[in-house]
UniProtKB/TrEMBL annotation:
It comes from the Bacteria. One of its GO terms (biological process) is tRNA processing. Pfam families: Sua5_yciO_yrdC (PF01300). The keyword Ion transport does not apply. Belongs to the SUA5 family. Residues 1-191 form the YrdC-like domain. The lineage of its organism: Bacteria, Bacillati, Cyanobacteriota, Cyanophyceae, Oscillatoriophycideae. Its main location: cytoplasm. GO terms for cellular component: cytoplasm. Its EC number is 2.7.7.87. It comes from Okeania hirsuta. This is L-threonylcarbamoyladenylate synthase. InterPro entries: DHBP_synth_RibB-like_a/b_dom, Sua5-like_dom, TC-AMP_synthase_SUA5. It catalyses: L-threonine + hydrogencarbonate + ATP = L-threonylcarbamoyladenylate + diphosphate + H2O. Keywords: ATP-binding, Cytoplasm, Nucleotide-binding, Nucleotidyltransferase, Transferase, tRNA processing.
Length: 195
């Protein structure tokens, strides 16, 4: 496939195809949550490495997590402070999360809102998408849409060259909520969480 327009990419994603578009960190390889197995296959990714559920708005993501009212309020306060932006929150998963998103540990889900207008515009129309960096597993993330198109010829890749300006190239910080009510940093990225 060749580079495609945003309209073609959105239609393709809704139809269950793998797509790729810029984000505020690195370009994403994305699919509907129930089609997440396509990402694992395309990337040759081990199923013990979960995907991130990315959305256009916090309201679109909260149904995918479960917690007490107090926990939800705390998580929403953190999200309000750092979203949109390069912070992934790993939280207890609700029954809405398909097992394909996290085959080895379906009890948690990483969620994020990117600080990238194009990505949010796409997900406003597709709904939240299963995402990860666009590259073969173990390889450096690809930074240009043309490179992604060459490496993943079966993926609908957005025709957009502004991603060089949009993307930091630094992955998101990943913070996991644990049972003793505090955050554990699984990967330090651009965001420094203040506790």
């Amino acid at each position: 496939m060749s580079l495609v327009s945003i309209e073609t990419l959105i239609k393709g994603a809704i139809s269950g195809n793998l797509v790729s578009f810029p984000t505020d960190t690195v370009p994403a390889l994305a699919a509907l949550p129930q089609k997440a197995d396509l990402i694992f296959q395309a990337k040759r990714r081990s199923p013990d490495k979960p995907l991130i559920l990315m959305g256009a708005t916090p309201a679109s993501l909260w149904p995918y997590v479960r917690g007490s009212d107090e926990e939800l309020q705390l998580w929403q306060e953190v999200a309000q402070k750092y979203w949109p932006g390069p912070l992934t929150l790993v939280l207890p998963a609700s029954e809405m999360v398909p097992r394909e998103m996290n085959p080895f540990d379906p009890t948690t889900i990483g969620i994020r809102i990117p600080n990238c207008d194009i990505a949010r515009e796409i997900m406003t129309q597709t709904g939240p998408l299963a995402t990860t960096s666009a590259n073969f597993s173990g390889q450096p993330p690809l930074g240009r849409m043309a490179e992604i198109n060459a490496q993943f010829p079966d993926v609908l890749v957005l025709s957009h060259e502004q991603e060089i300006i949009l993307a930091s190239g630094v992955p998101s910080t990943v913070a996991k909520w644990n049972e003793i009510s505090c955050w554990e940093i699984l990967r330090q990225g651009a965001v420094k969480l203040k506790f």
